[in-house]
Amino acid sequence: MSAFEALTVSTLPVRLGQEAAIRQRVGDDPSAWSVDEVGDGNLNLVFIVRGAAGAVIVKQALPYVRLVGESWPLPLKRSFFEYHALIRQAERDPGMVPEIFHFDEAQAIIVMEFLSPHIILRRALIEGQQLPKIGRDLGNFIARTLFRGSDLAMETRKRKADLALFADNVELCDITENLVFSDPYFEAPLNRHTPGLEAIVTELRADRDMKVEAQRMKHLFAAKAETLLHGDLHTGSVMVTMDDTRVIDPEFAFYGPMAFDVGMLIANFWMSYFSQSGHEAHGPRDAMRAYLLDTVEEIWTTFTIEFTRLWHEERRGILYQASLFEDRNDRLASEQALHGVIHDIWTDMLGFAGVEMHRRILGLAHNADFETIADEAKRAACETKALKFGRHIAVNRTRIHSPADLATLAERLE
Ligand code: ADP
Ligand code: MG
Ligand code: MG
Ligand code: MG
């Protein structure tokens, strides 16, 4: 096993030129490959490798956080977790993640399908594109991956082995635990925010109910090892065309609460919603705003419909056994239990979503939705609405009952 070495555009063909899985897809003559580094994420290197036969993506983890530099070490093992999560997601919702061609654990390299002409969903939403399929595709993706990775569906021995495998993703969980749930609520060194937000930031950091709620969400995140999460399911981890949706970048994968993926995903649509007025230079975005609220509703509705179908057709795990319910002719018990599970996901999802909206505006890792609004006063105005919305849904999460309630609230703030 050779020591880790970061790839560069010039060393990549030499180092990976003998890999059959890559040669087959790119071409047999590595000296004719062209390599571009395209990583725009916070953590890793991403290369497109093109040749006569086609193209692949080569993603390599670095032993530190790319966004910050070598002063913030981060284990290469995240590549191992990303690979194992991708394999599981491909089984649980076929066609929704890039195909994997090759994995090198020691070099932290994953070679995968080059998604083209896909673009990052966040960028499409900033441009004002209305993708017709994402509500359904993403709703099904979360239902299938979250249900099928849990004790509702899996043989419990396998689930426990998986729980142990992913339990080692400690450092990436630590990033979420600190950057998402704690840093936004005090003057943490890595925080930054748009000038003009000082008053609301002070207010939020003094908001006892919000701080307690954020820590309750952190408690759930850390303690409720319910299913294999994607762990970083925002609109920058989704690539789209008008008729295809793919989910990438599950390096934060670990066993946690179902509501975390749901809440993080939906929060990013609400942030897109509140950022739209900053992108109206080329025309009004009213239709886009309506589309975003409809999409949130469609994600949630699709999620509940598919989760319900799986509950009835694939509930073979140790929880809510049919032997106690349907087999005893007590279908009502099964429905009651299902509604309880979905209700808890809904309530907790709102808490996670609220916190995610705060940390993207007040913490270290910001969203292009807001960051691309050049006019600071305009950006601060958009972010203020998102901060208020996030606070409301987190603190009132047990008192909000439907996507329609939330649409009304969002429209009122807008
Ligand atoms: P990070 O973990 O550093 O955030 P990502 O996996 O999100 O890395 O990839 C960074 C960028 O590389 C993505 O935003 C996308 O533009 C591009 N990318 C990653 N994977 C693929 C892929 N399979 N096909 C096409 N582009 C990709
Ligand atoms: Mg990413
Ligand atoms: Mg598809
Ligand atoms: Mg990543």
Mean pLDDT: 97
CATH superfamily descriptor of the largest domain: Aminoglycoside phosphotransferase (APH), C-terminal lobe
Uncertain residue ranges: none
The main pleated sheet reads as: 5 strands, antiparallel
The value of Rg in angstroms is: 22 Å
What binds here, in terms of ligands, is:
adenosine-5'-diphosphate, magnesium ion
Q: How many beta-strand runs?
A: 12
- Overall morphology: globular
Q: How far apart lie the N and C ends?
A: 56 Å
SSE topology sketch:
Blueprint: H1 12-16, H2 20-26, E1 34-37, E2 45-51, E3 54-60, E4 64-65, E5 69-73, H3 78-92, E6 100-104, E7 109-113, E8 119-120, H4 121-127, H5 134-148, H6 156-166, H7 170-180, H8 198-205, H9 208-223, E9 227-229, E10 238-240, E11 245-247, E12 254-256, H10 258-275, H11 286-314, H12 331-362, H13 368-371, H14 376-395, H15 403-413
Antiparallel strand pairs: 1-2, 2-3, 3-7, 4-5, 6-7, 8-10, 9-12, 10-11
Bound molecules: adenosine-5'-diphosphate and magnesium ion (3 copies).
Adenosine-5'-diphosphate binds at residues 38-44, 46, 57, 59, 98, 112-115, 120, 248-249, 251.
GO molecular function: S-methyl-5-thioribose kinase activity
Subunit structure: Homodimer.
Family: Belongs to the methylthioribose kinase family.
